[in-house]
Amino acid sequence: MSIWEYANPKRFMQVSAAVLPWLSALALVTLVTGLVWGFFFTPDDFRMGATVKIIYIHVPAATMATGAWFMMLVASLVWLIRRHHVSALAAKAGAPVGMTMTLIGLFTGAVWGQPMWGTWWAWEPRLTSFLILFLFYLGYMALWEAVEDPDTAADLTSVLCIVGSVFAVLSRYAVLFWNRGLHQGASLSMDAEEHVSDIYAWPLWVSIIGFALLFVCLVLLRTRTEIRARRLRALQARERAA
Amino acid sequence: MRALLLRDLRLAIRAGGGFGLSLAFFLIVTTLVPFGVGPEGGTLARIAPGILWLGALLSCLLSLDRIFALDREDGSLDLLATSPAPMEGVVAIKAAAHWLTTGLPLTFVAPALGLLLNLAPSGYGWLMLSLAIGTPALSLIGAFGAALTVGLKRGGLLLSLLVLPLYVPTLIYGAELARRGAEGLPVLTPLLMLAGITLGTAALLPFAAAAAIRVNLR
Asked: Which residues contact B134 (CB under 8 A, 6 or more apart)?
């Protein structure tokens, strides 16, 4: 019994079909708990007022935006090394979800920044890095769309994902060097002196777990769709050949 | 290898005029900037390093299809792939040829265009240095992007979407080096980072690009 057993598309479809309803329900419960707890049962911040509550969407979305890219990187490596098709399709399925998370992070940040920093957008390291990350997602997805042969597309996007990861990290530090900004430090960390107080931290953790579960559900769902689409194409090709 | 380099250089200089075109494009971009932002000298001087770096980056980008696409069309890329020379070496040589015909000439005409943009004379040396160190990275990253899109019919727009985000770190350090040089600020950090990016891309990207070409020729 090894984890690679699930790389068999048939096995993957069986297991994901069984797991998905439960996982979705769990994601829903966690998300609702985290967001309702955060929105209605935490006090307003003494400086930021009610706008502080956007943190329950902003931080989890931003976490998932980078997490999704990391997941795509791992899936791409698995595809290049072990040639499991499910892995390549999972990487493909992760990209639009990650891109949406990036957009949510940017959008909620802008909505929060307008009353707090007095501007929708500032050329500030974290914001800029996320905009660049968004561009990376766009390029990655465009390459998937442009290449016709699915295996070629999987290979090329995997190489792009690996190279892109290196350059994304490089850009992060280059942007930090380029302009020091106004953004808060880490909201949650084990050792930092200054981060959000416990009363906000607990619902925030619940929201992050909820977003992570939601991400897993969406990726599983989209991977299943991709597998079905692949099967359909194979069937059509066989029919045409017959 | 040397034959390949000479062949690429000859093709770039003689056939199609890609060599002169990227220089002309660089000149046009620089000429258009004052029309957009106004002729006021102080503004131009402040944005000159960034504009010149952007112009170099764009003219580099526009000549990228020369690296592999033409060879792919007439079949010489297949010959190169079956030749005893390793594909990684072929990529490195082709990137070098691209740099010698775009990045290097751009470096030499940059001070003249800096003059047009009212760049402080003390900045010419740093501008040339930053372009000389940074443009090889642009060619190498571009070669990787061109390798990814070599099999596509209309890869041009996609190529820019893929390559431009990868140019971000080079652009930041390059323009910062030129700006700091012109303003007489300490330049060591961007200088070292820019050199590091160029050396890093030279060491690693030929392998990624060669892998992409092998996939595309499969």
From this structure: B53, B170, B173, B174, B177, B194, B197, B198
